[in-house]
Write a structure and sequence with these properties.
By secondary structure, this protein is of the alpha+beta class. The protein contains two helices and six strands, in the order H-H-E-E-E-E-E-E. It has helices at about 1-20, 45-75; strands spanning about 115, 120-125, 135, 160, 165-170, 175. Helix 1 packs antiparallel against helix 2.
């Protein structure tokens, strides 16, 4: 389909560029007359006007062909012959990772890190025992660097985070990793 479209477009542009209008066609001089350089065609066009029309037609055809080629490259219809000069089509951005869901498995790299769940609530990746890590509901994080292991905290305080963003909880007025 792509090749048919491109070849049809090229054929149409080529055909349109070679069409000569009747006003521009030359008629032979009548017998018995002499042709001089002062002679103009009956429509009153001079050689400069004719040359301008020809140059303009060629420029228009080249511009149309260039535009068609640029469009075809951007759409991926043809391969880019000059990747450093002609920009290629934009690369699609990777899809965002799906939001975690309560009870779903998580990785060791996500352990104790807070994340906004698919339902909009805060989840934390915790070890359920025997190396099984799952997303569970957790406290609203206070921000990275708001807690240090063993540091003082107010009773009932939740959601402290160490310098790496891992969640901590307050037990006996000291920050410990958890929940």
């Amino acid at each position: 389909m792509k090749k048919k479209f491109l070849s049809l477009s090229a054929a149409c542009m080529l055909a349109a560029s070679t069409v000569t209008s009747p006003a521009m066609a030359q008629t032979p001089a009548p017998a018995g007359t002499t042709v001089t350089e002062e002679t103009q065609d009956p429509a009153g066009s001079s050689d400069a006007e004719i040359a301008g029309l020809v140059i303009g037609s060629v420029a228009l055809t080249l511009a149309a062909a260039g535009g068609a080629a640029y469009f075809a490259i951007q759409q991926g219809l043809i391969q880019n012959p000059l990747p450093g000069i002609i920009p290629g089509p934009a690369k699609p951005k990777p899809a965002p990772r799906p939001a975690p869901r309560y009870g779903a498995a998580c990785t060791a790299a996500q352990a104790l890190l807070p994340a906004r769940g698919a339902d909009g609530k805060w989840l934390t990746c915790v070890n359920m025992g025997q190396g099984e890590l799952r997303w569970v509901y957790g406290p609203t994080p206070q921000g990275v660097g708001t807690a240090t292991p063993g540091g003082y905290c107010s009773p009932g305080e939740q959601g402290g985070q160490d310098s790496r963003g891992r969640l901590m909880m307050c037990i006996n007025e000291a920050w410990v990793y958890g929940p």
